[in-house]
Structures are given as structure tokens and as C-alpha cells.
């Protein structure tokens, strides 16, 4: 009986330690996409595939006491009419030079060929320096700006060993 109670107690402590290791994360990025080069699928006039790349500047994103500086997103996308689904990777650089990567999936809605909204999920895949073995996930929402850039708001959580 005492062994069972001890095991339950140890499990609860381990679970609490894991939960306590999660740190909330939020920030914003302004991204300037390169012009896309869609390739028509050929089955319908509004169906295409493309690969895109965007340069991003981060604001108010902090991890392990460091500020994020900039990053690059690369994605493959499928467009059907006014909806684009994308899967890609973002590699960010912190002010001290440490790097982090995440994968993302999202959906963009357009009107008259211009994005109206963008939203999806992301998960950290890698990190260097203080961010080595970085884990975490979250969500993002994007809104277009008049100059052709997109501003993204991200929220989530991360942990480090």
C-alpha cells in the first residue's frame, strides 16, 4: 500500500515539474513576402501550387531572456480560389545569434487576389545555443498591411531542459 502511494506521489511531482517548465510566449513579426510564382494545376482556373519565402522582423518576442531579432519563412502552398493552405518552416535569430526553427501550417483567405487573413499553428523543431533542445507550440494570426507586408501575432508556450 505504501509503495502504491509513493508511486502516485512521485508521478504527481513529475507531472507538476513538467507543467512548471512551460513558459508562456507571445510576440509579433512583420514579414515581407517575395513575389510568389504559382504554377497552375490545370484542373480548374483557380487551382495552383507555389513555394514562397518571406523575410521577417520580430518585436516583443523573448525566450530564455533573449529578444528575437529576425527570421525567414519558407512555405509550400496550395491555392483553390480564395483559400490557400500552407505548410512551412520559420528559422529565427535571437539578438545574441542563437537560432530557433519551427514548422507551421496555416490557411490564408483572400479577396480579389489579396490576403485578408492568415491563421494556423506552429511547433518548435530545433534551437542552438541557449535554445538547444527547445520544445513548444502555439498559434498565429496574420493581418495584411497597406505596404504588402503581413503582421503576425503569435502565442504559445515553450520549455528548455
Question: What do these coordinates show?
Answer:
With 161 residues, the chain is mainly beta. It has one helix at 2-20, and strands at 23-33, 39-40, 47-59, 62-63, 66-80, 83-94, 99-111, 114-127, 135-144, 150-159. It has a single domain, classed as AOC barrel-like. It has one helix and ten strands; from the N terminus they run H-E-E-E-E-E-E-E-E-E-E. The relative contact order is 0.19. The model is unreliable at 3-20 (pLDDT under 50).
Which terms summarize this structure?
mainly beta, AOC barrel-like, 10 strands
* SSE order: HEEEEEEEEEE
> Class by helix and strand content?
mainly beta
CATH class: Mainly Beta
Radius of gyration: 20 Å
In the CATH hierarchy, what is the superfamily?
SO1590-like
Specify the oligomeric state: single chain
Strand order of the largest sheet: 1-3-5-6-7-8-9-10
CATH topology call: AOC barrel-like
Uncertain segments = 3-20
* CATH architectural designation: Beta Barrel
What would you say about this model in short?
This protein has one helix spanning 2-20, and strands at residues 23-33, 39-40, 47-59, 62-63, 66-80, 83-94, 99-111, 114-127, 135-144, 150-159. An 8-stranded antiparallel beta barrel has the order 1-3-5-6-7-8-9-10. The chain is mainly beta and 161 residues long.
